[in-house]
Specification:
The strands form 2 sheets. An 8-stranded mixed beta sheet has the order 5-4-3-6-1-7-10-9, with helices on both faces. The protein has a two-stranded antiparallel sheet with strand order 2-8. The chain contains 5 helices and 10 strands. The protein is globular. Helices cover 26% and strands 30% of the residues. The protein is of the alpha/beta class.
């Protein structure tokens, strides 16, 4: 069965953004980009919440119109173009992006169906609100966290409160030259 993999940038104190939504503290460089793009080989579905989806839809198709896009950026644009894009939103009426599907409700049922279909794993890049919802439904199978070497002191917490502890097993860790740590955990059920 396919897995749902969450890939998220967090600060050492567990924030995915500053109080005003800023991400300038993320240690995102070519090495981290390469790690994130390594998910292309094992995934063929991109899952997004409405806000992240809108940003992705507005940006990535335009990469094909650039005169000479960065090769890594172009590779991600190609992967995203070819991947099934799933957007979760109660308010969006039309995803308006090729090869996209909209899920409005019944998340547990809809994602269980997607997990049972043939194909590679599914990845959520960002979309912290959606990740929280899917965690509460115990649908996220793997967490890949890029932990930047910074303490924000305050900000938007990735997990906040959970109904019960979530048992995880560390299956990979890697320290990048920037000082960021990439951690990979699988859900223990």
């Amino acid at each position: 069965m396919r897995k749902i993999v969450s890939f998220m940038h967090v600060s050492l104190d567990g924030c995915y953004a500053t109080p005003d939504g800023g991400l300038g503290w993320v240690s995102y460089d070519k090495e981290l980009q390469s790690y994130a793009h390594s998910l292309h080989a094992t995934t063929d579905v991109a899952i997004h919440g409405r806000v992240t989806y809108g940003m992705m839809r507005d940006y990535w198709p335009a990469v094909f119109e650039e005169e000479s896009p960065d090769p890594a950026t172009l590779a991600h644009a190609i992967w995203l173009r070819d991947a099934l894009k799933v957007v979760v939103s109660r308010t969006l009426e039309d995803p308006a992006w090729e090869n996209s599907m909209l899920i409005k409700d019944n998340l547990a049922e809809e994602f269980t169906k997607l997990k049972q279909k043939p194909g590679k794993d599914m990845v959520i890049f960002g979309s912290p609100g959606l990740v929280k919802s899917l965690v509460k439904l115990d649908l996220v199978d793997e967490f890949r966290l890029s932990v930047s070497p910074v303490l924000l002191g305050s900000g938007k917490l990735l997990f906040g409160s959970l109904d019960a502890p979530l048992k995880l097993e560390l299956i990979e860790n890697h320290t990048l030259k920037s000082g960021a740590a990439v951690l990979r955990y699988k859900r223990v059920r």
